[in-house]
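Every protein is a chain of amino acids, and every chain bends into a shape of its own. The protein below has been through that process, and both of its lines are reproduced in full.
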Amino acid sequence: MKVLEQETLMDLRIDILREPMILDHWRKLYRNYSDTRDARATDLANIVSRLSRAEIDLKPLGANPYLIDILTSGDSKHIQNEDISGAADDQSDLEPELEEAHRLCDSGDFIKAKRILVKLVKSKQMHISSWAQYFLGKCLYDQYQLVAALSTCQNLLSAEAAPFDVVARAQELMRSIQDGLNYQVETCSSHIKPSFYHKQLLKMRPLTTILLETSYECYLHYQRVGFRLGINPTPWFETRTYLKNNQDISHAGCCPFFHYLAAGQKEGRIAADHGSRFSSQVRNQASLTKDLYEEARGWLKTLECDKQLSDDELAKLLETPYVLSISHDSYYSSPGGIQLCIQREQLCFEKKGIQYVHIYPRQPSPMPLHERNPYSEIVVSRNGVKQGISTMHSFWHAISCYPSEAFVIHSLLGISPEDIVLLISQCPANVRLLYWMHDYSALCSSYQLLRNKVSFCGAPSLDSKQCTYCFFGNSRIGNVRGLSMLLGLPQAEVIFPSHAALTVWRNGADASSLMFPTKYSVINHICLNRSESISRDYEKRLPRIGYLGHPTYAKGWDTFESLIRDPELFNRFDWFHLGATTASLSADIEFVDVNISDSLDAMIRGVRDAEIDFALIWPQWPETFCLTAYEAVIGGANIITNVDSGNVAAFAASIPYGHVLKNDYSTLKSFLLDLTSEMLLALSFPYQVEYEYSQMTAEMFQ
């Protein structure tokens, strides 16, 4: 920077005071020399800024020898007239604070920086105040507080005595702020309905006279004031909930709605609390622990006293030809798609005269065990009948004497893959290892590949930054390594329930640099052979929409809940939930108890008996198969799903009873609103559907 010589500076001071000058000339000199940031030029800056702010009548100052004497001596401490002097502040004290605030801005510590800058903005020295206002505007800009940043820069530019270089920087910053504000408005305002927003404003402030007629005006108000009042810009975004669940956004003070649309949605942050289509996920997020390891400790439970199998009893179970099936729980007492598939598989093996021995961990866990524990307890059953409790160590000795004809793995939650590798090592080299890809647990501990249990991630590379802020991130590497060791065995064969699952798994394996198995096949759980079509008359009743299965976010329960709560839709349909468990939602929804432990075809009969017209199958991840979609059609319903639902979308696109929509609530709502009487008459519904279940793994045995 340019540094003025002491003699030159003194001459300038004396000339300025003796020569009558207009205010613009004063300001020009101030801008020329204050941008040097030189302490010896600050006396001049203080005088000019003080004169400008005081708006006094400038007169020739040459007749004031007292002032000339003080200025030429370089001592401004004795100036008592605060309207003219700039001595109320000490430049040497404020300059380090300004530098510290600048450093904090660059390092991203905006909260501390703003505390300093707010104080410096009030400085009586225009030079310090101007720079503080500029840095404050930059802080606000970096925190997405664009309206406040714009106002700060406008205030700075309106102070005509501001240094020239600060003005130039502020003008450049204002252009960036305006561009950012235009982008924010374009991104956010399209989601805002003025009547909805204004009603909330009136509720918060009944006496307000503000009239917000456009989405643009609503967003500007929300960005500046609205989110601090707790106003929701849309029915599906709850400001208070978002700020409460995301303290980093609350502390930063940025606009929560824009943050959610720009970044929060991709990061899996929750937009709304109970009563929205994200309600169950809000409850999940509120209970999230540090990581999956910590949650696994919470799964530990007090175990009931069960029969312990002796070595002889265990050997007797294995002495006849058998296949060993492995999953995460009791398939004959727990509801679910995997459990239903295992039940059918067991029956098929029994028809072939092969015993079906099944083991699962006695102590449940949300992930495979990353360390081998030979004494971990397992529950053993044969042909669907529980036999008792054993350990991996005991089972290892028994299987060495009576090797299995094949290993069929349906799930490894709660089991160490290394233990399975050791069991396989006790069998002949030609033993078959068949791994069913019912989900994507081989790619991540999140078997649905939902980041933070919210958004589909597609299984990025193992060193991806996405995993660092995901609930499953810490456990992913251990999970993938264990299953890679198992799938890397030469006996390993992978079975996919659909081509859609194969595609997703192949893409995830490529991204994660995992070796794709050389032996694999696709076996659909169920196939539709033919069906007849009929039309339905809705003069005597409303169309019926049903949700099938367990009420979870991943399966689309939140979307179903939102449809029911939508005042434009609720009275147009009758709403049903078919499943083994339900959630407290509304007294006006009809719950149909469907439990596969009573009958393997219970869901089909439930859909048929309730006369469901449309089954909402709206998963938030690409389903590998989804039996309920097939059961819905067999029961006589059309299925409504989204393009991101994996095999559900593929199945729906292949039949005349499927409707595949964009994965967006407004699109789904528009589709339902368009189901007029004429549209419903034009639709066909399945009738007398002929179908056939696969034999599961038994198909691969002659």
Q: What stands out?
A: Residues 201 and 226 are 8 Å apart (CA to CA). The mean pLDDT is 79. DSSP finds 28 helices and 18 strands in the chain.
